[in-house]
Amino acid sequence: MTTLTRRLLLTGGLGLLGAGAVTACAGPDSSEGTDAGSGPQDGADSQDDDAVGHVHGIVRDPSDGVVVLATHFGLFRVLEGELVSVGPTVDLMGFTLASGGRYLASGHPGAGSDLPEPVGLIESTDQGESWNVLSRGGESDFHALTAGADRIVGFDGELRVSTDGENWETLAIPAPPAALAMAPGTGEIAAATESGLLLSTDGASWETIEAPGLISRVAWADETTIVGSATDGRLFTSRDSGQSWSASEEPVGEVVALGAGLTEDGSVEALLVVDSTVLRTVDGGNTVEQLA
């Protein structure tokens, strides 16, 4: 089911842990954790909705090039400047793309859903139209989630790693991650934490990376390119796996969701949700284009 909705995103008041914190977030059918004026509680399936709730993730689907938002009221696609809801209402706290065009997510079921609470790790093979539980249903709400060709990494109060989406190993990390991202190809993991940006090749040992400021959201654009949004509103870009950085000349604002990739000409594209707006930049945040 796809439904056109008006373009209002609720994003304010998020610190470093913000949407990535491990504290409980009520499901879409509850008034707890939902800002006043965030729209009807029956979710985004109604055309009368005027909000999609908090945005927890943003990616560009490589299969069709469409920008996708994971939100408090489910999945939305950005089409011609409008947000179009896709599939059931699920509070998608964690969201990532996996190999083979699969969507992976976590969070809480919406009203009328037969998913467990919390949903654990769920998978969609039809671009979010439907979801099924892979593992940890009723156990895990992964607020930070990322995946690569050979493993999935999530944080639900513990750092967990799986090679098949069903069996998990618990590993240690120096600080709770607000966001996790995995480099395509190499599988290197980046974790944005209150102790700084951490990198790991295996999820078991971590290195602290020096950055120009405290990074709250992080994404890989390719095997060596990291994009990070800082708590002071600036956007940082590194083309050498965090060894050196460039920063935007001015703050872009408080980024609550961040995605990255490369354009056809090799420019670094960053996708941002800032101040109720979906933005795109290809020059490190110095100029931005509004997508929705």
UniProtKB/TrEMBL annotation:
Please list where the region (Disordered) is annotated. 26-55
Q: Can you tell which superkingdom this protein's organism belongs to?
A: Bacteria
- PROSITE patterns to which the protein is assigned, alphabetical: PROKAR_LIPOPROTEIN, TAT
**Transmembrane parts of this sequence:** none
Q: Which UniProt keywords apply?
A: Signal
Q: Signal sequence span per UniProt?
A: 1-26
List, alphabetically, the NCBIfam families matched: glycosyl_F510_1955 (NF045728)
- Specify the protein name: BNR/Asp-box repeat protein
